[in-house]
Design brief:
65% helix, metal-binding, DinB, DinB/YfiT-like, metal ion binding, Four Helix Bundle (Hemerythrin (Met), subunit A), single chain, mainly alpha
């Protein structure tokens, strides 16, 4: 996969994450406490997985021993950590050579099983993993009053490149 393609996917991820965070902020915590708690738990899991895989990419110690925590951080903290992750991923990816993108990284999953992925596969996993959990959060947003933003790749790419709508 060319670096431009994975970079565009990472930009999409950041855009979709921001839309989801903004929608979660609109949940009335008094009226929909379960839905808000679920959305925060899903964000917490997303952030922790990203932080673990970022450490694997960087060759640094993994910051977590599990993909969830007993205490779920505030939306503000999760927003900051997700922004930190997105702000790290794009420059990191941009700086990789094609050979580095294809380099295999061996690691141990948090459940103890071994695994290996190329750097590109790890980056794609983070894009895909976020999409999966934003979908779950979307259900909570629906239950909390229909706050789900349109966050598909087609909406992103046509917002980012409006001329594409005119090229047909």
């Amino acid at each position: 996969m060319p670096v431009t393609q994975i970079l565009n996917q990472l930009r999409y991820k950041q855009w979709a994450d921001q839309r989801t965070l903004a929608a979660i902020a609109l949940i009335d915590a008094q009226a929909f406490p379960v839905e808000r708690a679920f959305a925060l738990q899903q964000l917490n899991h997303m952030v922790r997985v990203e932080e673990v895989f970022r450490a694997r990419l960087a060759g640094t110690p993994e910051p977590h021993s599990s993909t969830n925590s007993e205490i779920v951080p505030t939306l503000e903290e999760l927003d900051k950590r997700l922004a930190d992750s997105n702000n790290w991923l794009q420059p990191y990816t941009e700086a990789l050579s094609p050979a580095k993108l294809g380099e295999i990284i061996h690691f141990r999953f948090l459940d103890g099983k071994t695994g290996s992925l190329t750097r590109t596969e790890i980056l794609f996993h983070l894009v895909n993993h976020g999409s999966y959990h934003r979908g779950a959060i979307g259900r909570a947003l629906d239950m909390a009053g229909g706050l789900r933003p349109a966050d598909t790749y087609t909406v992103f790419i046509h917002a980012a490149e409006p001329a594409r709508r005119e090229s047909c």
